[in-house]
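FORM 12-B: Structure-to-Sequence Request
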């Protein structure tokens, strides 16, 4: 059944409908998120929690946010903060090729242009503003030396299993396998808004996932040469439909369990691709 599901996943991926992605994690860090200890708890216990809670970004582990950036915020304030962070980046410390390809964009982010930048951003509709908020945030997430990196609301993943495996330290770590629907294009006019050419580290094939990897889309994880399959897969009859709906997972008493069984301080609700942040 698992092999059949992989066949369907690969078929949809080859048609460009979905991305098959992998996230590599150090085992100690992965266990700590679920209040587990590598000395006393088993990988099976980790799996039970992963397939119930999913994998969330650093943002959800922080009780007090220094930057006061909220997941559902697309106000003037958040773009002012993003502009400030971008204007203070030390571009000499990042990939020389990325800097070379983006000299004009890097120069744009100066104090003198902030008013123009905010005016152009705020003239966009909500969907386009959300897109640009996520776009700048994902670039900052991929760059190492900036304030947003510490409170990032993105989860790093890669389309290449080998790259994710490197991040997991090979067999000692954990690689989470999941899929993501490719976003439908929304027509926006970005002519007056600075846009970077490429990504900071193209060889890493990184995809920054907004907020969380929901357990409904995690089909397995791997550790120490062993494969652990989401048990929800075996309750399904129409494998192709799962790609659209995700696995059916009973998340009864989710908030209470999240508080007791994880280190997370908040969580994300997804209602028809509308994300809302909830505090514990």
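FORM 12-B RESPONSE
SEQUENCE OUT:
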């Amino acid at each position: 059944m698992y092999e059949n599901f992989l066949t369907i996943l690969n078929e949809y991926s080859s048609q460009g409908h979905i991305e098959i992605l992998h996230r590599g994690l150090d085992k100690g860090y992965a266990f700590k998120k679920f209040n587990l200890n590598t000395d006393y708890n088993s990988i099976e216990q980790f799996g039970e929690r992963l397939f119930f809670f999913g994998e969330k970004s650093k943002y959800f582990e922080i009780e007090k946010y220094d930057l006061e950036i909220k997941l559902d915020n697309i106000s003037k304030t958040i773009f002012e903060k993003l502009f400030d962070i971008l204007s203070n980046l030390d571009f000499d410390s990042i990939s020389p090729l990325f800097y070379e390809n983006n000299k004009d964009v890097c120069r744009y982010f100066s104090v003198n242009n902030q008013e123009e930048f905010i005016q152009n951003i705020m003239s966009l509709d909500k969907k386009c503003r959300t897109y640009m908020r996520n776009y700048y945030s994902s670039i900052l997430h991929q760059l190492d030396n900036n304030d947003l990196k510490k409170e990032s609301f993105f989860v790093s993943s890669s389309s290449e299993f080998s790259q994710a495996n490197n991040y997991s330290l090979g067999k000692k770590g954990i690689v989470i396998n999941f899929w993501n629907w490719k976003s439908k294009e929304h027509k926006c006019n970005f002519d007056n808004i600075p846009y970077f050419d490429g990504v900071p580290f193209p060889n890493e094939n990184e995809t920054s996932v907004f907020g969380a990897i929901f357990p409904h889309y995690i089909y397995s994880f791997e550790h120490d040469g062993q494969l652990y399959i989401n048990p929800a897969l075996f309750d399904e009859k129409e494998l192709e439909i799962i790609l659209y709906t995700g696995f059916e997972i009973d998340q009864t008493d989710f908030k209470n369990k999240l508080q007791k069984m994880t280190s997370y301080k908040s969580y994300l609700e997804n209602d028809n691709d509308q994300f809302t942040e909830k505090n514990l």
